[in-house]
Amino acid sequence: MSDSNRPRVLVARRVFDSVVQRLAAHFEVEANDEDTVWSKAELIARLQGKSGAFITGSERIDAEVLDACPQLKAVCNMAVGYNNIDLAACTARGVLASNTPDVLTETTADFGFALMMATARRLAESEHFLRRGEWSKWAYDMFIGPDVHGATLGILGMGRIGRAIARRGHLGFGMPVIYHNRSRLAPELEAEVGASYVSKDELLAQSDHLVIVLPYSPESHHAIGAAELGRMKSSATLTNIARGGIVDDAALAQALAERRIAAAGLDVFEGEPKVHPALLSVPNVVLTPHIASASVRTRLAMADLAADNLIAVLTGGSPPTPLNPQVLSG
Ligand code: DGY
Asked: What is the domain-level CATH number for residue 74?
């Protein structure tokens, strides 16, 4: 039922019905049932008159959008990464931004570990070979590759997801774990996941399987480029489940083609959903479409948490996972 006194919110992408219904109990909801990824102009047009936005990593909220939508009070991201939100611009305009930490940690770590294993053990490459009808006999060296158990697991970016991957490697696969991060973990956290802190150069040189779990920022742009790939072992694998742009995809495709590293597993890409064409033509890469958090339970938990934040901000409550809580006391 329409009630023009209720706040209006935009749900910028198609999401679980139950979540839209929860929002509709509080607000006038405009939902993107067609699931179109709107242009900035379309997003601004849709946001007119809306107090809140339920967004995903595909919607960019920057100063231009905020200035064009001065009535906006909350932007709630259904993602833990929030490089799509200009947080400083939100804070300067008193707009609360939120993300969805914690609820996706274990699911994303499962996927990161699976992608690393698929990359090391050449699952995609061998599966494509079988489907092409090329399997005619067993051979001792057919799709031979490195072990995962006992190999050195390297982690670049040791936040919640990095630690969850380290724990899997340490406890489940007997892997020595090394990591590099802006700040070093407390000794008890290092001990819990069996991880040793090393410099970035040491991480690159010593890892058998390097997993990237850094947040994306201007500082982490191309943190892995040609020079860094050149420091890795030629037998090493690289897995990126963080964000496109952290790895220089063109440099990676070239390193893979020249076998300067053994293989890569990528769930995220620069300029996704476009994928660098050179990556599509090298065999030694496993490519997945940004699905690391995509378990049913976790995606529902993420959507519910984004909705919880939106409901709290617009009904005078305390949002559970704000990124700039200072705007609430301002
Ligand atoms: C996140 O939560 O940041 C993921 O990349 C989106 O699924």
From this structure: 3.40.50.720
| Same domain flag for 160 and 21 | no
CA of 133 to the centre of ligand 1 (A): 36
Question: What's the pLDDT score for residue 268?
Answer: 98
| Per-residue pLDDT tens digits for 289-311 | 999 999 999 999 999 999 999 99
Q: Which tokens go with 226? A: 């040609």
Same domain, 142 and 253: yes
How many domains would you assign to the chain? 2
Q: Are 268 and 240 in contact (CB under 8 A)?
A: yes
Work out which ligand 1 atom sits closest to the CA atom of 242: 5
Centroid of ligand 1 to alpha carbon of 330 (angstroms): 29
* pLDDT tens digits, 71-89: 999 999 999 999 999 999 9
Cβ of 268 closer than 6 Å to ligand 1, yes or no, is no
* Domain span including residue 94: 8-103+296-329
110: tokens are 């499962």
Residue 57 Cα to ligand 1 midpoint, Å, equals: 7
- Tokens 């799709």 label which residue? 143
Shared domain check, 324 and 301: yes
Alpha-helical segments (H) within 12-86: 17-24, 40-47, 63-68
Could you tell me if residue 2 is inside a domain?
Answer: no
Domain membership of residue 1 (yes or no) is: no
- From atom 6 of ligand 1, which residue's Cα is the shortest distance away? 79
Helices 105-120/296-314 angle, 10° precision: 140
Whether residue 209 lies in the annotated active site: no
243 in catalytic set:
yes
Alpha carbon nearest to ligand 1 atom 4, residue: 79
Please answer whether residues 226 and 254 qualify as being in contact, where contact means their C-beta atoms are separated by less than 8 angstroms: yes
Is 272 considered catalytic here?
yes
